[in-house]
Amino acid sequence: MDSPPNVTWNHKLWDVIRLLYWTPRFVGMGSITEDKFPADFKALKSLRGDGYRLYARNRKIAEALRYLSEQEEVLNSFFNIAFAIAPDEVLSRLLCAPLGIPDAGPFTSFGSGEIARRYKFGEGNVTQPDGFFSTSKSLVAAELKLGSACWPEQIAKYVALMRWEQKETGRRENLGLLFILPEKSLESNWSKVGLNVLNRRGDHPAQSSMIRRCPDEFFDNLNQRKLPARVRQLFENESGHIRSDFERLRLAAVSWTWLRYEISKIEGELDCSVRGDQTLKRLLAGLRAQIEAHRNTGIVEAASAAP
After folding, report:
1. 83-122 burial by CB neighbour count: b if 16+ within 10 A, else e?
2. pLDDT tens digits, 204-219
3. Where are the domains of the chain?
């Protein structure tokens, strides 16, 4: 396997900036279509061509912050920055353990920007994982949900990403996808993604009640029209490897309540007189506080999740 790339946490902040660029509603801006222009308004022709739009601010700051506090993408940004900084033991405990994957790392965390460059996606929206982590033995992904629905083709996109990474750096022993959801959605999630029936395939007895596997017909039942062209092409060219990856993929789901509790447990185990522990406690406390404050996690209905 090739040596891991030098991926540092500051790249995650640039991912946030890209997110804001492509999603102006997050900064209170709404697009103005030409039919909404005032009769006497004359926009510069250079700002009305392909790739340009006119926007107007349509939210005040308090309303904008409240809106942001219930968006999956925003919580995902906190998650990615924290897990890009957190030590390997934390990633192993919070992401690998629920999947029954024994891997102590070291972990490399890839954000959307790194992924687009790594697999030469260009500006195309091929796949944007909520979390994607690599070790010499494992590839583990995380799909974060607040209220939006899950669907089988989301799993397919993660399998495609894992296939691209294995083409770059070699086959992995373990492949895993962890869903993090509101507690009320844990059961319905499996039926929505077509995995409502347990398929143990020899999992350890202590883990079999939590872990799902894709059935043999899962790949053939995918709606190919819901997949980006690059993914469809990969599946056609690498169908044998892709089927094997689907068979090996472990899937599990945990609640935001569980994640908050586990983070709190780790905080309680730290010795804040030790510099490293003090830093880790501050990192985890910030992530936990945002999970508690963010709306629609199913934990609490906060009065305000915004600073």
Report:
1. bbbbeeebbbbbbbbbbbbebebebbbbbbbbbbebbebe
2. 433 334 889 999 899 9
3. 12-59, 70-257
62 and 101 in contact (C-beta within 8 Å)? no
Residues 6+ apart with CB under 8 A from 43: 37, 54
Distance CA 23, CA 57 (A): 13
Strand-pairing partners, residue 30, are: 56
pTM for this prediction: 0.81
Contact status, residue 78 vs residue 260, Cβ threshold 8 Å: no
Closest by CA to 218, choosing from 201, 230, 206, is 201
Degrees, nearest 5: CA angle 283-285-290: 100
Asked whether the predicted pLDDT for residue 231 surpasses 50, the reply is: yes
pLDDT at 200: 47
DSSP 173: S
Confidence at residue 38, expressed as pLDDT on a 0 to 100 scale: 64
Residue 218 burial (CB < 10 Å; 0-12/13-18/19+)? buried
Query: How far, in Å, are 98, 175, 222 from residue 194 at the CA level?
Result: 20, 19, 10
